[in-house]
Amino acid sequence: MQANTFKVRVDSIRDEAHGIRSFRIARVDGKPFEIYEPGAHIDVTAPSGVTRQYSLCGDPAFSDFQLFAVKREPESRGGSRSLHDDVGIGCELLVGQPRNLFRLDTEARAHVLVGAGIGITPLLSMAYRLAARSEPFVLHYFARSEAHAAFLPVLSQAPFASHVRFHFGVGSGDLGAALRECLDGVQDGTHIYTCGPAPFMDEVVAVGESMPAVTQVHLERFGADPAAVDMGAAQGEFDVKVASSGQVVRVGKDQTIVDALAAIGIEIDTSCGEGVCGTCMIDVVEGDPDHRDHCLSKAERAGNKVICCCVSRSRSPVLILDV
């Protein structure tokens, strides 16, 4: 679990769309929240005891409260179901400090936000910031229907209405063409930010990277795709060396780096256990990480300077970590 957690009180609950509910929270101690950058997410522990990550979707300029939204998942293991069924106004929850692996790029000449379903949540906070700064952006929101589009009233009025384009009922076979139309004519130096179901984001990445004017595609995942990771590759044992003390611990075939370090008394904060939230990222001093996460960018993976200790392994016999 993440070490820096605190209690909040649910001040309001709103049904934003079919199966999507938003929760506005305030700190129980009455203090303001820390300022966060758009795209950040927090850990939320439901009454069931299950902890999940949810994007902050309110205006990041306000610190008196935070807003997050939850889609009720049919196959919920106790996270979204508990938040929908067990939480009412006045309930207290345990949440973590905001973490951000999905920031707006300050070098971008223009921003294109592309979301689907509940994936609108981190993009909404980005839209608040971009609108406040009068920066050029457009937000394309894909949903099954108007009834499935969260925050529709907010997005349909100032300051967002002139920037938002809605796309309802676009089938998977038509998605590529729709995205190419969305991105046709974007200016050089444009950055794309996308969040939604994995197949949707994969299509956005494929189309975006085919556009010469697009500099980079950024994405946010909150669930690991088992098919995307080859757990058979480099599954052998390896050693982890602690840079600060010189201690060496063997990481077994069926053991994580987090568990191996815990065995010698070194606790690494974790949350999702699937390599999507970034809580357990540690700097790499030396060695060749075998990245199996879903949160590092291509550039970060290529640089081999950090590793997600809950899922990733090592291609080299020894991995020296800055712990």
UniProtKB/TrEMBL annotation:
Keyword list, A-Z? 2Fe-2S, Flavoprotein, FMN, Iron, Iron-sulfur, Metal-binding, Methyltransferase, Oxidoreductase, Transferase
Cofactor(s) needed: FMN
Using the record's annotation, list all stretches that form the 2Fe-2S ferredoxin-type domain: 238-323
What processes does the entry annotate via GO biological process terms? Answer: methylation
Gene Ontology MF terms = 2 iron, 2 sulfur cluster binding; metal ion binding; methyltransferase activity; oxidoreductase activity
Would the keyword Iron-sulfur turn up in this protein's UniProt record?
A: yes
**Segments forming domain FAD-binding FR-type:** 3-105
What is the protein name for this chain? Answer: Vanillate O-demethylase ferredoxin subunit
Species of origin: Paraburkholderia eburnea
Species lineage: Bacteria, Pseudomonadati, Pseudomonadota, Betaproteobacteria, Burkholderiales
